Amino acid sequence: MGIFSKIVNSFASSDxxxxxxxxxxxxxxxxQIEPIEVSKPSLRSQFATTILxxxxxxxxxxxxxxxxxxxxxxxxxxNESGDLSLRKxxxxxxxxxxxxxxxxxxQEEALSTYRDLIHQFGNVESLTxxxxxxxxxxxxxxxxxxxxxxxVKTGHxxxxxxVYEEVIRTCDVIxxxxxxxxxxxxxxxxxxxxxxxxxxxGGVLQANNQQKEALSVYExxxxxxxxSQTPQLQEQxxxxxxxxxxxxxxxxxxxxxxxxGKEALTVYExxxxxxxxSQTPQLQEQxxxxxxxxGxFFAKLFRYGKALSAYEEIVNKFGNTKNHVLxxxxxxxxxxxxxxxxxxxxxxxASAIYEEIINRFGQQEDTFIQEEVAKAxxxxxxxxxxxxxxxxxxxLFVK
Length: 399
What we know:
Structural class: mainly alpha
Mean pLDDT: 82
CATH class of the domain at 1-121: Mainly Alpha
Shape: elongated
Oligomer: single chain
Number of helices: 16
Order of helices and strands: HHHHHHHHHHHHHHHH
CATH topology of the domain at 1-121: Serine Threonine Protein Phosphatase 5, Tetratricopeptide repeat
Radius of gyration: 33 Å
Distance between the termini: 83 Å
Largest sheet: none
Number of strands: 0
């Protein structure tokens, strides 16, 4: 019997029509392949394939440690070989070993295995090997994202930042990779991991009160993937935009409280310019907040024309919305407009706005909206009898 036939027969089941290795047929005696030395290149390749099949069969039987040892055996036997078929077998063994370790919850060992693979074969030109390297990088990114999330939850923010940085480096390495056609490509899993890592990194920076650095990270997400049509990437871009808008609102509010009104106005304008055309409800809410505050800023300076323009922009943008939060901003904009007209003794226009509130929102079931409609009815009646006193409303939903 030839050497290769001996190897193959040593792993065959008693049922020669089946390729499945059974527990009964896999005995200690016929599983011994170590003493066999194969010198011919073609047989060495077949031998490596047989070792791979042995490891896979052991995995199917639940004998994970033996399977891992078998993968290690293959790597050790042929690690110095320059033969492409053997190098492919080694790469396959390392990927499958990493997969077993991941499934077994041994994430650090899996990381080490994938890193060894990339270190050894990251620059090999073979398409098959490049595909496996790509798979290893993807799994590294996934493991590290989970590790980073755990570190954040346990309060280890600096360590989490370092982990997210590694995810970003791992993904950036193949941004121009032809295998995944990155830069926001369709169905690129690695790009998705990159955006998630950037978002998480930004969150950690914000928690550390590093707002400028966080905004830079979120801008990076938008710049890299803002034009992607992939739903998963669009979702991450929207998150980045929302984080930016919320951070800018917070910055503007702090400036207002510190007496830096003009600087705050610049920030509100930035929000409106960046996100004014967005169809994302959460971003629209941030735009509405910015417009309310912009109007309040000008009203405080008695620049009523600019204040009215800001409030009218809210009505024009969101006047027909079904979103309850946005409806509240629209109602507030109407009230602010009416009060400006009343302050300037333009009672007919103020009365018309109160009538507009009643007509637009009179049938709404939302409790807050119902209360605002009732206020509009009272204020309209006061205007008619000439008993109107201004009670300046301030923004109700900014903080």
